Every structure is written in structure tokens, then in C-alpha cells.
Predict the 3D structure of the following.
Amino acid sequence: MNNPITNWWRSQQFKFAVQRGDTGRAIELLKAIQKSGAKFSWLEKLFRDKLQLERSALDYKREVVNIRKQITEISQESKKLLSPNQNFINYISQSFKFLQHDEYNLQVTGIEQKIFDELEYKLFEYLQEEFSKVSQDKLMNNLATAWQDINNLKIGKDPDYRFNLTPHVYFIKYFLENVYCVYLAWFLIYQNGLLPAKLNILDIAAGPGTVAYSLSLFLMSMNDFVDITQMHISYFSLEKQDAFQYRGLQFWRKYIESRLTPVNAYFRFVTSDIFNWNAESTNIPKNFFDFIFISHCFFSDPVKRQEANNIYQQIFTESISHKGYVILIIQDKKLLKAYGVNKILNQEQQRNIVNKFINEMGLELIDFRYFRSTNPHQVLSSREFAKFADENLPKQQHIHFFNQQYFNQKYPSHYTLDDYVILARKLS
């Protein structure tokens, strides 16, 4: 009932409550006035509006806190690191027959047979199909030209990699061994507890995408031990020769994407010469990549090597994320030759050379391994190595056919290693 005297009395009590700073009593009286149907005085309206503003501000603060919490949870989830599974680590160590000679030197004479055999056979099928499209004479000539170019690596020269069948020769001669090596680099990352569930990768001088293939195989191996259904890969290929990128993606679609459970991967291709980096740098995201790989793209010519190192350092500075890492893979002879060393004498010298190498690119060392098929402290003659390989190293049963037929190779094809795998990050 709207009683004027009662309403007046409530308004007076409300005014006194406000004056005393008794907010609780003032709110209680304001509700009673509103329920009675009486009109609010100017003070009561002002107090009501003040309460509404305070509630809106409180709701806003709560919403901001909630949004920040959600963003943090999403960010943490996207960068969630996979905890190393000891059973899986033991499985890989046994499959690859690891023999740790000292802190850095690891002899590897085994392989994850099922997965690599399948990769090799699918590659064999793919190349057979490709070669069937070309006449035998033309095929032989084009393969010989491309092989003569790539074979410059053996005499310390830098190839051009520009011939029509260069990607095919690379597939035959280097691809499987390089996937084998980079697979072990991913294992080193995983073993160090640095592999996130969602990762962004930049592969510099990517060729046909060796880094993506090796990660795909590594995840296949992991699948029986670790839940990888939430894994997501964003893979950026930076490569001068578009033929490498085209052939790499073509084979990926025939092999990886044809599997029942393909890897959840996004590909982006930037076809550019790294020596034109200043002109092309806008094509690469800034502060984005969890891992930047450079696999075997280190030059024999000192001037060109220094120029490349400067560009690499610029790419690291601009494009790697705050907690990102760099993985460098370099053949032992190329690394030692750059510093005038014929062979490693001890672990301290080994670490000093690796540190010097990465410091030239503005990096600091996290970990490294020298992966070798033979004992790193022994030197074998060609005949001794051939005997050792035949008795101990995994064979390339199918690709060997191409080496025999097109390159007159007399000895069996094996998976071999003689590489430094270096895990580093930007200098603090």
C-alpha cells in the first residue's frame, strides 16, 4: 500500500543511512521504497544509478578476469609440452641401437624398421611412377646431369640444385638418410621435454620437406605410447627451388595424407633465395616459430657461409617466438673443416667448436649430439666400413635398385650417420 507518511519516513531513514555511510541499510530501504510504488527522490535516484554503475564495473572486471583466464588456458594448452615417456624413450633407444660413447657422442646402428621400410617402399613406388613418364635415354641423361651437380658436395663445392630431376636424385641419394637424421633430432627435442602439442616450424632451405616427413614418422612411432590426437603442426617451407617444394608436397599427398590417421598439418610454402631475405622477409611471420630448422644448408665457401650466417641470425631475431628453439644439423667434416680441424680430440674441444659455430649466428647452446654409424673414436678404411655397414647398418632394400640401375653403384645402400645435431636458442 502506497502510504505517504510511511513513504516519507522511509525516505528520511534512507537519507540518514546514506549520511552515516550505512550502504547495506540504504540498499534495504531503497528496495522497500521501490516495492511500495513510491517515486524515488533525486537522492534515491542518484544512489540507485551509483549502485548500477558499480555493479556494471564489477561485472566488467569479472568478465575481463574470465577472458584473461580463458586466453591463458588456451595459450597454455597450445604450448603444452609433451612429458617424455620413458617407455617410448627406451623403445627408440633399443630400436636404433644407441651406444653412448660419452656425453655427446652417440653411435646409432638401428632403425624403427616398420615405419622406415614403409616410407622407403612408398618412395620407390612414387619414383617408379615418375620415371615411367620419361623415355629411358632422356631419363638417364637428366639423372646424370642432376647427379653431377649434387655430387659437388663430395668435393667441397656448393651445388646449384636447379635441374629438372634434381629433386628425384635427392630422393634417391639423400632423402631417406636425412629423414633418418632429423627423426633423431626430433627425438632429442622430445627427450629434453621441449616438444609442444601444437607447434610452428620454419624449415630453412627445406628441400622437399625433410623436417616435416621426419616429424611425421616420429609421431607415428610415438602413437603407441603417447596420445597425439591433439597434435597440430604449422609447417613453413623456405626453399629457393620450387621444384623441391612441389615434389615434396606431391609425395606427401601420396604417402602421409593417404594414411588412415594422417598428421594434422598445415603447410605454407615460401619460394625464395635466403640471400634475398631483406626483400622477402615480409612473407615470414614475426615472433611466431617454436622451432627453426636448418638441416645441412651450410656453405663451404667462407664468404658465402658468413653471409648466410648473418641472414640466419636476422631470421632468428625476427621470426622465432620468445621461447623458441633453433635446430642446426651439419655434417661432421663440414663443421670441423670450417675451423681448420681434421678430427675431434676430446669432448671439450668438441663443445668449443659447436659453441663457436652457433655463436656466429647469435645463439647459445642447449644440447647437442654427434650421431655416427661407427664408433666416433675409430677411423675405418673404405673396405672396413663396407664390411661394418653390411653387418651392422639398416639397409635401403628398394631404393638401392635405382642406385644400381641409374648410378652404377656396386655396394649396397645403407642408412648412415655422421652429423652434429645442435639444439640452441637466441642469446639472452
